[in-house]
Amino acid sequence: DLSGYPHYMLKEIFDQPEAIRNAMRGRLDLEEATAKLGGLNMNPQQLLRIQRIVIVGCGTARHAGIVGEYLIESLAHLPVEVDYASEFRYRNAPLDGETVVFAVSQSGETADTLAAVRESKRKGMRVLGICNQVGSTIARETEGGVYMHAGPEIGVAATKSFTSQVLVFLLLAVLLGRLRYLSARQGKKLLEAIEKLPEQVASVLARHEEVRAIAEKYAHADGMLFLGRQFQYGIALEGALKMKEITYIRAEGHPAAELKHGVIALIDERMPSVFLCPQDGVYDKNLSNIAEVKARRGPVIAIASEGDDRIGELADDVFFVPQCSELLAPILTVLPLQLLAYYTAVGLGRDVDKPRNLAKSVTVE
Ligand code: F6R
């Protein structure tokens, strides 16, 4: 059911306020200033014994895991490792009894992710799932987990499942954090900010025409770079994946500081860079990277925070997202990137919901 939208992808982008509302429903415990994730099937003693977290997934799911890594490390001070499920399954990674493995998968059927689940179980690990499809193979084969409740995702390009996954990681980070270093005051503040997200997501999506105009301007670029740091690094990877999947434009995502280590050689007037630079701990670092790109005549599209009056002087085009904690910003900054890929693909006449060579669920290796 397209509900009047021309493509499932656009419908699913606009489903996001509701999807993340569903992902948080019944899980915010403002009284105790923590998150409730009963599906993990772990009591506080067991949760406290976790010493290390490994996150595995493919494609977009792995990108959500990378954002999750930064969230869990900063709120719960636990070491986190993220790997491609396909690499992890053959790596013979050293694991011990205090490690918990999280398998992230919208479909719950991805062959490599399932194999990583089975390999981890063989090693005696506790494996938990973050899945969307209820009753899917990964959901069934894990000891517990968290359902995203994003609703069916039909467009091949993952959109609402990504923001729901990031939200689940946010809740997990709050829960693990509150068992460790996070004060009730900080926990409550975060939960209150999380509650505001659906409205903020809706307010960003309402400005989709601004993104369409940017998409039209750059649709004939030779390629596109997506650059971000820290909480925005996973978003840079995700923005590039969305762009290449549905437009076939060569797109790369990198941590912004990697520019100097090789990537900057690609910059010229036909290679635009999308910078993820909301007001966060690395904002000034991003500004210097933008200046380096501008000095080489590279066009710059910035995704910045409302009220930022410096960015306009540097970037060619700016899309503003509401101000919020840097921990929550990824859920807002990814939205214009989804829309940018969508409108670029539509402008180029691509088959948005069924891009060439891709399948929604990759059940073979
Ligand atoms: C990207 C995309 C793929 C999937 C990947 C994992 O838009 O859709 O990269 O994210 O194939 O799929 P799931 O989450 O079903 O395991």
From TrEMBL:
Q: Which residues form the active site?
A: K360 (for fru-6p isomerization activity)
**Its Gene Ontology biological processes?**
amino sugar biosynthetic process; carbohydrate metabolic process; fructose 6-phosphate metabolic process; protein N-linked glycosylation; UDP-N-acetylglucosamine metabolic process
Query: So what EC number does this one have?
Result: 2.6.1.16
Keyword Repeat included in the entry's annotation = yes
Top-rank taxon, per record: Bacteria
The residue ranges of the SIS domain are 43-182, 214-355
Subunit comment: Homodimer.
Reported function: Catalyzes the first step in hexosamine metabolism, converting fructose-6P into glucosamine-6P using glutamine as a nitrogen source.
Protein name stated in the entry: Glutamine--fructose-6-phosphate aminotransferase [isomerizing]
Full-protein interval shown:
251 to 615 of 615
